[in-house]
């Protein structure tokens, strides 16, 4: 506090030695002590409005000069009282401490000029500081008075708006008399457990006095009650001044090691250090504060002049100020002292400008003598509002439209030493008038953190951070800063800490395994180059070549009895339709296109329906031929080629009609599937209409069921070359394949789904091909001697086995049945039967 007086004296000394400012004028000052007590403050300010040494406010009984301006005070309460008294007189008041009126707007005090920027800027800067270090769970400390209440009412909503919660609010005793103060401190001790909140490692303190002294008092008495010591990072506003009371000068300050404060920007005016070293007992002649400061700082009294020598250690006046701890005296001009220095210069420059003003000069010369003693206080406001100059340290001094000093704040890290000294380390800057996002600059490499945190950045959060890949979920009945961390759902990511919700990846990207980054999707489809596609192509061409080989063999031996006996026209149709079925598999391989999507299922459905219709025609023909063996039977009229053609044509046209309706209403189309497999975009053919897809597939099942039923009923016919059993077996293969196809199709994803379709088509086609044609090929190729009408009409060794051809007919009809025409019927051929009966007509 004494440094403030020295800054005032130093400014006065510089101005009086300056030849261009207030020439031929000796500047003086008068200091009054408010003692931080309201009634003493009122008395002090009223004494300035009274006659010298006579406390009669508002009356001038002698030639006392008029007050031009007042500089003070340090705390809001003192400044407010001074403003209330001085405002009616329009006396300019320059307060060098923060001013936060609890009962109204500052604009209600037009004569007040504040040498500190608006205090709200510090609150905003503090919020940005918390956000920078990730502190969201902090404690709040303020004095239990109107100014502390106003601080809390301002800060708590600001914290909430910026995602910060207060863990606790602790109000320290207000300034009062010593007998009351002791009881309030003991009451505060009862609430000490609040400060022990383990997760809140950071406390934001409203620096308005007496916060510093209260906190020091609390931490001093805690060990006497065997309570645990605090380990906090103290964040304080600019009003906090690390000076000690006389009773506190030996108290440890290690609890405040690593504290961070917003401090008033200051520089060192040239000559101030030299000026401080001139402070000696000789200085005391004009300084009533010197002796009190010196005796308390060096813990020694000055020896009265009339007292004889004794053993008591007296102050010599040769003590060194630089030997004092920083909590008692700092050699550099600090923030509040710098404001006093600038405040003196602001008043002087305003006086000088008023003196030099032409309009003021003219008015004064017309009515009064020109002189500084004739300048009224209200005349300075015009010049103070517009004042702008550079002080000796190079800083610009000016005020904004609201009377706030235009400047920023330094961010200071306090490093304490065992000898109760400390150093201020400038670690950042707060510029209230900077662009958004650039107000706060921090050099965190310079910050020294409290030793309890191993000098590492402490955490001050309600719970651990939610790291990328997780999002926050609020806990019930707790503040929003307390939350659980849950993994991001499928298809979503979080790429920052403590994200409220997970986000979806852009189109064409998908979450990685940790769900903290989006990576490009991989396109996939069953291509010709990959192994699965190559295997499918090999199988398609293998079965196709086998089918061509069978077709060529049957065509080459088309005039042989066994080919004729198997209805060669139906055989050709069956083989060609199976060949087309195999080749349809190629439509499923490669990148899906519109034409291939249209043909994939429709072409296969029609081709396979032709194959099944041919088998149905073969089976019905055998049954009808057996029923038409009796000469003159009416079944003979059904034994015509038009019946066969009608069955094949009618069975195929129904499937073709279904496919035409499908293509004209909801045709298949190329589609992408980005959700079935993580990280993969599946290029596929969308069926368009699932109903039509299953209609086409269901119709194939219906044809197979009818064919199976007819073949099953004909299974007891004579089995020498009877195809009914082979067709029954082929239909069982068909049902096995396609019944397993449906669940397998829906349980697979991507290109494997297409592979399942290809496998089903190939398996069902191969089942038909392998169940019906191998016995006939064996006779045609391997045993051509068996391929004659004579051999077929008698008992023969077949496939290396001797067998009889039993004729299973009822006893009632056995006498009427002619066996000779039945023999060729059992071969399964319609043409031989037709030829035989045509010759007998």
- Strand content bin: 5-15%
**Class by helix and strand content?**
alpha/beta
- Computed CA radius of gyration, to the nearest angstrom: 53 Å
CATH superfamily of the largest domain: Rhodopsin 7-helix transmembrane proteins
Q: What count of domains describes the coordinates? A: 4
Question: Can you list the strand order of the major beta sheet?
Answer: 5-4-6-7-8-11-12-13
CATH architecture type of the largest domain: Up-down Bundle
Mean pLDDT metric: 81
Top-tier CATH class of the largest domain: Mainly Alpha
Q: Helical amount among residues, as a percent range?
A: 40-55%
Major pleated sheet: 8 strands, mixed
Summarize the structure.
It is built from 26 helices and 24 strands. It is an alpha/beta fold.
Q: How are the SSEs ordered, and which strands pair?
A:
Layout: H1 2-17, H2 38-48, E1 70-71, H3 76-86, E2 93-95, E3 112-114, H4 120-133, E4 137-143, H5 146-161, E5 165-172, H6 178-190, H7 192-195, E6 202-205, H8 211-221, E7 233-236, E8 260-264, H9 272-276, H10 290-298, H11 335-356, H12 358-367, H13 381-385, E9 388-390, E10 396-398, E11 409-416, E12 422-430, E13 440-442, E14 470-474, E15 483-487, E16 492-493, E17 503-504, E18 509-511, E19 518-520, E20 522-524, H14 531-556, H15 561-565, H16 568-584, H17 594-627, H18 641-665, E21 669-673, E22 680-686, H19 690-713, H20 724-747, H21 751-772, H22 774-782, H23 789-792, E23 796-798, E24 801-803, H24 811-814, H25 819-825, H26 830-840
Parallel strand pairs: 1-2, 2-3, 4-5, 4-6, 6-7, 7-8, 20-22
Antiparallel strand pairs: 8-11, 9-10, 11-12, 12-13, 14-15, 16-17, 18-19, 21-22, 23-24
Helix pairs in contact: 1-11, 2-3, 4-5, 14-16, 14-21, 16-17, 16-21, 17-18, 17-19, 18-19, 19-20, 20-21, 25-26
